[in-house]
Amino acid sequence: MAMTLTLIFTLGNELYGLEIDAVQEIIENPVVHHVPRAEGVVGGAINFHGQILATVDLPALLGFSGAPRDPRQVVLTAKFKSLALSVSGIQRIVELDLSALRPPPASAQKSAIRGVTTLDQTTINLLDCNEVINQLEHFYAQ
Q1: What is the tens place of the pLDDT at every residue in 36-89?
Q2: Angle at CA 13, nearest 5°, toward 7 and 16?
Q3: CATH architecture of structural domain 3-141
Q4: pTM for this one?
Q5: What CA–CA distances, in Å, run from 125 to 86, 100, 107?
Q6: Rounded distance, CA 49 to CA 37, Å?
Q7: Distance (Å, rounded) from C-alpha 49 to C-alpha 139?
Q8: Residue 47 and residue 20 in contact, taking contact as beta carbons nearer than 8 Å
Q9: What is the 3-state secondary structure (H, E, C) of 56-94?
């Protein structure tokens, strides 16, 4: 059983997980700069150690538009375009057995869920970062 460190966070009232290998850093209260003509799911840009990163409103992208936003943001690694993700709430880092992932429910097709697992009888949706990027590209191609 291979355990993987996973960041647990909320989108709306659902729990999501993101492998820690995809996370570069969690930043507290970044100053988000308005970007002209950036609207919808791109909330603006932040200065991250001298690098300008787009901030993605993950709840809005995945259909949780009325959900609260955590003041912290999750910065993804360069493999995932170094995006800064806004989420509803950052919980904690846990070890999950990702070899036991089940396929996401059919209703979750547009929700960027790679698979589903459980932790303490609670469902965790594992985020698919590549699908998040695909949805962003599709959103802005229209």
Answers
A1: 877 778 889 999 999 999 999 999 999 887 889 999 999 999 999 999 999 999
A2: 25
A3: Beta Barrel (2.40)
A4: 0.92
A5: 17, 12, 13
A6: 24
A7: 28
A8: no
A9: EEHHHHCCCCCCCCCCCEEEECHHHCCCEEECCEEEEEE
